[in-house]
Structures are given as structure tokens and as C-alpha cells.
Design a protein that fits this description.
Aminopeptidase; twelve-stranded mixed beta sheet; 27% strand
Length: 295
């Protein structure tokens, strides 16, 4: 019998990361990845543990989820149990019960790629398909051709330029100094969490040595898929091909780290992002959807 959802202790994070890494496979879904936990770790190890939920069969972890905000739960399930109706029922009951410590009452979204039985159970309980996403992969069996532009690997305490480009890419507004300092401190906090060692922080500079694009990449172990999360180009340097250059550089870095493929998932509505990855040699898998519960 599967145990109810529980919130792990921060001392369990390293073990959870190893389990999650073992579930990554080139033939499997682009589900929750250790890199997602690495990126979330900008909030610190304690906050990361508090945002996680695990389901177990005796002492064996069978499902791992991250509350990426109060109303989004991102899943990975042991590939051997993706068709397990009993596990799907247990998880569905927990996410639908406000006393189970997963969701508060109201609207919520679940990302459960590849979890076929869970999707069927959620649908039975009234959850509906949400917006489509496009998974993209690039095999790293062969070397990746990269630009001669300067690509830097940035140390956590020296991420001010990286953070400014990221803010421009995703916010498009001037970055408050206080927020900049907080973001840099977050990278230092992530470096103290157990998910950082398989990560690299990358910065691309143009011919004038200006920072124009950023990425972070995360390994899940040798001969397993690596993750690009995030990747962005500053607002003033878009449309010049830097996104594809950064994507190839990220893939090349993952290959150097021993990854078998580079993976990323983009909102299908973000046609520019999908086109950028395709231009960088990624191949799109069939679209996937999240599951939504309205208030």
C-alpha cells in the first residue's frame, strides 16, 4: 500500500536527487528533472525541501513532485510505475484533499508528463487538459558545433551580469538593484544546496564583449539526459541569432559533462522559443499538456 504524500527533510534532498536522476532516460518523458530542483534551489535548501512532496512504497520512493508555486505541482514517477493504477489513485486522492498538504482549495495545475495512469485518474476526478507544451531534445552522440563567440562559465558569486540579462529576457524592464542583489544571493544559496554540483551557469558575450544571452544547464548523470533551464536573450539583442548560439553552447556543455542528450520544454504558444531550439538542432517531440482544476 502506498503511503500518503509527505514533505521530506532537507537531509533527504541528496538521496531524492539521486533517485530522480535515475528516472531520466532518453526514451522517457521530459518530466521533473534534478535540474528543476537545482533552479528552484535559488530559494535555498530548506525552501526546496519544503516545496517537495514524495510518495513511497515502504522505503522506496515511487513519485517525486515539486510545488513550483502554490498552485503548480510538477511530477516525476518511477518509470516502472507509470501505469500503476493504485499509485495514481493514491496521488489523485492526495492532490484533491486540502488536508493532505499538497494543494489548498481552488484552482491548480499538475505537470505529469508520461504518467499515463495518473492522467487517466485525474481526468476521472474532473481535471482537464491545460495548455500544450513542446518537448525538445538534441542527441549528444556527436560533437556540437559552437560559435566562436565567448562563452563563460560563471561562478555563483559573480552572477550579476547573468542575472541582469536573465531579467531583461524574461521581464523586459529595468532591474531594481535590491532584486539584483537578492538574485545573486540566490545563486550562492543554490551552490550550498545538494543539486548544484551537476549544474553550470553560462553567459554569452557578443563581438563587443557585451553580455547578450544566458543559460543554466544541469546533468542528471553520465549517459542520461541533461536539462537546459533557463535560457534567455536580453531584450535589446533579440532577433540576431544569439538564442540558437546559446542553445548550442548549452548542449555542448552538457556533452562535456557526460549527458546523452540536451532537453528542454517550451510553451507551444511561444513560437519564437520553439523555433530557436529547432534552429539549434533540437527535435520536437509530440506536444504534451498539463492538467488543470478550476476553482
Amino acid at each position: 500500500m502506498y503511503a500518503n504524500a509527505r514533505t521530506p527533510d532537507r537531509r533527504e534532498l541528496e538521496h531524492i536527487g539521486r533517485v530522480l536522476g535515475g528516472w531520466q532516460d532518453d526514451d522517457g518523458p521530459l518530466h521533473l528533472h534534478p535540474g528543476d530542483l537545482g533552479w528552484y534551489s535559488l530559494r535555498g535548501a530548506a525552501a526546496t525541501a519544503a516545496a517537495m512532496r514524495v510518495w513511497s512504497d515502504a522505503d522506496t520512493i515511487v513519485a517525486i513532485a515539486l510545488l513550483d508555486g502554490p498552485d503548480l505541482l510538477r511530477f516525476a514517477i518511477d518509470p516502472a510505475r507509470c501505469q500503476d493504477a493504485s499509485l495514481a489513485s493514491r496521488i489523485s486522492a492526495d492532490v484533491g484533499d486540502a488536508t493532505a498538504g499538497v494543494f489548498e482549495p481552488g484552482s491548480a495545475t499538475i505537470e505529469a508528463r508520461g504518467a499515463a495512469a495518473l492522467g487517466e485518474e485525474l481526468m476521472k476526478r474532473g481535471w482537464e487538459p491545460d495548455e500544450p507544451w513542446t518537448p525538445l531534445r538534441r542527441s549528444l552522440a556527436e560533437p556540437v558545433e559552437v560559435s566562436n563567440l565567448r562563452i563563460e562559465t560563471v561562478e555563483p558569486e559573480r552572477t550579476a551580469e547573468w542575472v541582469s540579462v536573465h531579467w531583461s529576457a524574461f521581464r523586459g524592464t529595468p532591474m531594481p538593484h535590491k532584486r539584483l542583489r537578492s538574485f545573486v544571493d540566490g545563486w550562492c544559496a543554490a551552490a550550498d544546496a545538494p543539486f548544484f554540483s551537476p549544474g553550470r551557469i553560462l553567459l554569452l558575450r557578443d563581438e563587443q564583449d557585451r553580455p547578450v544571452a544566458v543559460s543554466a544547464v544541469w546533468s542528471s548523470g553520465a549517459a542520461r539526459p541533461g536539462l537546459i533551464e533557463p535560457l534567455g536573450v536580453s531584450q535589446e539583442h533579440r532577433g540576431l541569432g544569439y538564442g540558437a548560439v546559446m542553445s548550442r553552447a548549452a548542449a555542448a556543455t552538457l556533452r562535456e559533462m557526460g549527458s546523452s542528450s540536451a532537453t528542454v520544454c517550451a510553451e507551444s504558444s511561444n513560437v519564437g522559443a520553439v523555433a530557436t531550439y529547432l534552429a539549434a538542432g533540437f527535435v520536437a517531440d509530440p506536444e504534451v499538456t498539463d492538467w488543470r482544476r478550476d476553482a
